[in-house]
Specification:
The structure is a homodimer of 645-residue chains. With 645 residues, chain A is α/β, with parallel strands linked by helices. Chain A has a six-stranded mixed beta sheet, with helices on both faces. A six-stranded mixed beta sheet of chain A has the order 28-27-18-19-20-29, sandwiched between helices. In chain A, helix 9 packs across helix 14 (571-581) and helix 11 (502-525) crosses helix 16 (605-613). The interface between A and B is large, with 49 and 49 residues.
Chain lengths: 645, 645
């Protein structure tokens, strides 16, 4: 049998291996450790290496992107040596980048449709007015309005603060003022433009896009003239202290003073972010002349000070899906007091401006491809359709995917386990921890990852029940019933074990079932087979952390070819930024909101059936998940024909 | 010679007098004192009595109105007995009413042009909305706006406070809300109507008209549905403490914090008035849903918080003659926070909304008669014209007519001498004091009255110089030069004499000359002879106190037949009330403001000449004042031909 020479970098060691060996066998021979948390099953991707020379054949390339493959990356456990080869073991940071790419694929590629200033509702221009004299003794306001009329701008509203400074502003500018004019951001007819600022030198038109998430508030500071993003930053929503999900916030808002307090809390968060912007960019809040806001309907209601009560009561109506723009001062938002604050339009109580803006940002207004757009946070909002039609629904996933409602759950901060692999023979876990230190708990992505691994390795059955007889101490009867121990007490920062319990598994099953049932009902409602979906676009914080492969394995996402998924990052924030920059974008988001057909799942009889069917791993009908069925049947020696219930 | 029997009531005494006797001779015979402060010259009217029986002939009826004559009133010093007669000596309060009528004639008769609710910019109506269901699951705002659209109202602005209560208001009203809708009060195109209130029962639409005078702030509470005035009240403008005239207010506003302080002061005055309204009518301020404001340009600027600085600097431009309506909350005005506060349009820095509103209230928009409308306060504003054309100017009279800038001057409050008569032989004065007690000083009307009497009795010459050789102790060299003593120290509340000095006389001459020069220049500018003026309409506080006869004698008002003068009271407040009640009135006031040609006197070369010519009593050309010339020539034995300079 032929043997091949394998050089291992960066060490420079060389070994000879027989043809047909796996790359991991060559590294083992050289005494170089390559981690295989999944037990060499090609599932985890942690053994990725870079190959140079043509002497290899990939048996599987799961989890590697086309670009990675082009760059010669391969899974050491799944790659057969068929010639001389140079193998580079990547440093941990490269590995991390590799494995992250699949999660953020496309995030960089999001089109930034910048429109020139003329396409914006915020206008900046200079006026030249005749100087007053005893012969031309019009008052300042009449002179100014005549100048604006001559420039084609009418009708114009002059807010009181502008009028109060008009005389001195015009004189300081020697009758050649720069004018900042805000037309109605939503383009409503019959609403006058407002002069919000007069200056002597050309002002820099800065805008702020805000995404108010239930958990995280993100902002993006944009120069509206150049389209440049000056900075993007985010912070936990201070409202979390008054309830982790929208329902508890709504309940809190109903208490005496609760609505006002929740409003103050989100403003406090925004103030923190504005202060950070000031430190990073030197931009004072008062220089921000326009604001757009996206967020779910409850968040926009709390931000505007609208009681959200009716959102959770049948027939589930918000006060306003399309509020008008209000002035920042009216909303106590510490940017320029006359800046228009434009809350993007939503569709329903549980399909808000985060989804309409997100759908626009994801390109749903312009694609002919059948597209599934999802944004999973505490609630999962789903849009199905293309440029011609759109249906949408919301499913109450609960906070499990955000690490809440699970015994050892936590948010994806320092110390959170974010990914877990389980060895298919020893059932020992390998974990990755945010920040790289000792673990403190399990965040959402770890929960999905862990549930998928438990399922694929046969630690739990399709109903989510632990197989306690596998002979590993990791499986035990704990305080809360059967559990799998991810970390022992002496491995954690708290001194307590980190486990996933049967109760947690059931929570996760319900959460993923709600989302998948949403897909099913939406698709069935319009007579579409989920398998025909041409692209699955994933937005929101959820998309930042989860791993599609694992999400498919647990039956949260539909089983489609890898290349159809794209993670778009914070589509809600991006949609708000696009609306800030372009009237066309703003109008398109309005159109999306108008065109979306909202399906109220609680009023849909088929939802409960779909939900119940999805409570299994990955689903009652396993054939809906062919790739998962293959892995599972292989690893568990099961007969697929007997699996569907 | 025949004699006649004269019965004197209420005493019941009877005397016999020869035919041809004066009524005063009969009363003297009966031992009944009838005051003749003017020395029996028929000038003062204080000797008015009521006659019953036909046996008398009036030699003069000066100062008695047609109604009074019909009721049998006559001047005792000017009425000849020619038959048996019953003479009733009126009690002091009747006399006071008689002599006041000439000053307030017409005030009651001002037409109150009430328009039905449909003609108003504030609309009140009920909407019936479909109840929401799972099938009709539009959000509250969409449902409400659709209802308004169906009712023909669009575009509509929903202010944030209304949106914040929309959900609960609609539910409380069981989807049949009463809506208070405010259209742009000035009728500007392209400005949406605003919903300012939603109620479950029909709200009472109450409006407040405000006149902000430099000295006095007046308000009128009106039911906009019925047109009924609930109450009218006034109070000194608290700004007086920071300057008595507009110029000193403008100067004060330029100091650090001055503008804000003056704004607070006038709001404090308004708060006092609103509190009084509440006590009188039970109407809470928050029930007031609409406000109109009139006032001179400086007062409206201070009210709106606009710096008035440029008003007093050439070319004398205000910030805004026609500010938009703003919300009460923006102006810190404690009525309904969303009530529109509509400041009526002015024409120029010194011709404000008090004049446009006043001119409308005086009927200038609808009269074919050549009309002179004047409003004299600290400044004198003058309008000349009719329904086809209007010219206007303002003359800086200074505060003399308001009792300021004169040694013993004061405002027309308790203790102020308000009228003076001088005996033509003894030169002793008779005075009337506000409140009836001992005097403290001279108010504006007393100054005009006193100057006229001093002139007519020859105590001062036509140049305003005292004739110190008349042999009366009343004329003396005082601390401030030559003076006439109106009250000795033991007659006053202060223990100090009350005098009119030469300096005071010069001040008064300048003030009246400025006004009369204004008339002259305006009339000359349009080629009109003042003698052709068909009506002189007098508005403002000035008209409440002065005596036309005396004002003509000093040359302040043109010498026209008595019946051409009408005192209209507070035309500014009345104009504001009319604008509150009717869109047509509001539009007409706008039209008046547009049509008025403003003449800037300081830019008019003929003004100085006219002013200089008017510095004499009554004028350099005494023939302009034929009635005065007659009296003066008779009493002073002068040759009219030699009088004109």
């Amino acid at each position: 049998m032929a043997s091949h020479r394998v050089t291992l970098l960066p060490d420079g060691k060389t070994v000879e291996v027989p043809t047909g060996s796996l790359v991991v066998e060559a590294t083992r021979l050289a005494g170089i450790e390559v981690a295989q948390p999944c037990g060499g099953q090609g599932r985890c991707g942690r053994c990725s290496v870079q190959l140079d020379g043509g002497g290899f054949r990939r048996r599987s390339a799961l989890r590697l992107s086309g670009a990675d493959l082009d760059a010669g990356y391969a899974l050491a456990c799944q790659t057969v040596i068929e010639g001389d080869l140079q193998v580079t073991i990547p440093p941990p940071e490269t590995l991390s980048r590799l494995l992250v790419t699949d999660r953020v694929a496309g995030a960089e590629a999001l089109p930034f449709r910048y429109e020139p200033a003329a396409m914006q509702s915020l206008r900046v221009f200079q006026l030249t007015l005749p100087e007053p004299s005893l012969q031309d003794n019009r008052d300042d306001l009449a002179r100014f309005l005549a100048g604006l009329t001559d420039a084609g701008h009418l009708p114009i509203e002059i807010p009181l603060p502008v009028l109060r400074r008009l005389g001195s502003d015009l004189r300081q500018a020697e009758w050649r003022p720069w004018v900042v004019l805000q037309e109605d951001p939503a383009g409503r007819r019959g609403f006058p433009a407002q002069v919000i600022e007069l200056t002597t030198t050309p002002p820099r038109p800065l805008g702020l896009a805000i995404d108010i998430g239930t958990t995280t508030v993100s902002v993006q500071l944009v120069d509206l003239h150049t389209g440049e993003t000056l900075t993007t930053t985010g912070e936990y929503n201070d409202q979390i202290a008054r309830g982790e999900d929208v329902i508890s916030r709504i309940v809190y808002a109903g208490k005496d003073g609760g609505l006002a307090e929740l409003g103050q809390l989100v403003r406090r968060t925004l103030q923190t972010l504005l202060e950070r912007i000031r430190r990073r960019t030197g931009v004072e809040s008062s220089q921000i002349l326009k604001v757009t806001v996206a967020g779910n309907t409850t968040m926009t209601h709390l931000f505007l000070g609208l009681p959200p009560e009716s959102i959770r009561l049948t027939p589930y109506l918000p006060t306003a899906n399309r509020p008008a723009a209000y002035r920042a001062a009216e909303l106590d938002l510490p940017v320029h007091p006359l800046a228009s604050v434009d809350v993007l339009p939503g569709v329903a109580s549980y399909v808000g401006a985060d989804i309409t803006g997100g759908a626009y940002s994801a390109g749903l207004a312009e694609t002919g491809d059948l597209t599934l757009f999802i944004d999973v946070g505490t609630n999962g909002e789903i849009v199905l359709g293309n440029q011609d039609w759109l249906v949408t629904c919301a499913c109450s996933a609960g906070p499990a995917f955000e690490g809440a409602g699970v015994v050892d759950g936590m948010r994806a901060t320092e110390g959170a386990i974010e990914e877990v692999w389980i060895h298919s023979e020893t059932f020992e876990p390998t974990i990755r921890v945010v920040g790289g230190g000792r673990p403190r708990g399990l965040c959402g992505s770890a929960l999905i990852s862990l549930l998928a691994e438990l399922f694929v390795t046969g630690v739990v059955d399709r109903g989510g029940n632990f197989k306690l007889d596998l002979g590993t101490p990791r499986l035990r009867q704990g305080e809360h019933g059967p559990e799998y121990v991810v970390a022992w007490p002496d491995e954690t920062t708290t001194g307590r074990a980190i486990s996933l319990t049967k109760v947690d598994v059931d929570n996760l099953l319900r959460a993923k079932a709600a989302i998948y049932a949403g897909f099913s009902v939406l698709a069935a409602g319009v007579g579409v087979d989920l398998a025909d979906v041409q692209q699955v676009l994933i937005g929101g914080a959820f998309g930042k952390y989860i791993n599609v492969e694992k999400a498919v394995q647990v039956g949260l996402l539909p089983d489609l070819p890898w290349e159809r998924f794209r993670f778009l990052g914070n589509t809600s924030l991006h949609g708000a930024a696009l609306a800030l920059l372009s009237r066309r974008a703003r109008q398109a988001i309005d159109d999306i909101a108008s065109r979306m057909t909202y399906v109220e799942l609680s009023a849909d009889n088929s939802f409960y059936d779909a939900f119940t069917a999805a409570l299994f791993l990955p689903h009652t009908e396993i054939r809906r998940f062919p790739s998962v069925a293959d892995i599972w049947a292989r690893d568990n020696g099961a007969d697929l024909d007997r699996l569907d219930r």
